[in-house]
Design goal:
Order of helices and strands: HEEHHHEEHH
Organism: Thalassospira alkalitolerans
Distance between the termini: 26 Å
Keywords: Signal
Strand content: 5-15%
Protein name: YHS domain-containing protein
Shape: globular
């Protein structure tokens, strides 16, 4: 019982900052970052820019929490609890939208398998081609994204599906979260 109370209290504290966030990108799965575990990225060995990253870790549909107006799935209850304790640390930047898209002045969906952690922050991109543009000047693109985000954040989330973009064929193995 105490654990449930602590979990609920942590979630309420974590949610207090969500009012300042924009609308979370949620695709046809109905989950933030397509049902992949946001905490698991921080356990993966990141590839050098220009190389393919390890695949995102699917969450479980039975291990979830609501944050920033969306349902997030996790591979374990430990990961869920870590997220609840500090969602800003684990949630991808720009409400799950493509970081390069934000640098270019718009909101495009983020593909959870096209990711990079820079200075402890998780960024997603939309297609492998875009990853190339993003990787050519990561720090410059982050600066542009940060500058653009203040005006883009209040706009609604992208309604596009990253899976519907032909350039993403082969960037994912199957649906997440697992049931």
């Amino acid at each position: 019982m105490l654990k449930r109370i602590l979990l609920a209290s942590s979630l309420m504290i974590g949610m207090s900052g969500a009012a300042f966030a924009g609308e979370q990108y949620v695709d046809e799965t109905g989950f933030a970052i397509s049902g992949y575990d946001p905490v698991a990225y921080f356990d993966l060995k990141q590839s050098e820019p220009g190389n393919v990253q390890p695949r995102a870790v699917p969450g479980h549909a039975t291990i979830t929490v609501d944050y920033n107006g969306a349902t997030w799935a996790f591979a374990s209850t430990e990961h869920r609890d870590m997220f609840v304790a500090n969602p800003e640390k684990y949630a991808p930047k720009y409400d799950g939208h493509c970081a390069y898209g934000v640098a270019q002045g718009g909101k495009a969906p983020g593909n959870p398998n096209l990711w990079r952690i820079v200075d402890g922050v998780l960024y997603l991109n939309v297609t492998p081609t875009v990853v190339g543009f993003w990787s050519s000047d990561i720090s410059g693109n982050i600066d542009k994204s940060e500058s653009n985000w203040t005006s883009l954040e209040a706009e609604g989330a992208s309604a596009r599906s990253w899976q519907a973009i032909a350039d993403n064929d082969g960037t994912y193995d199957g649906p997440a979260p697992v049931q």
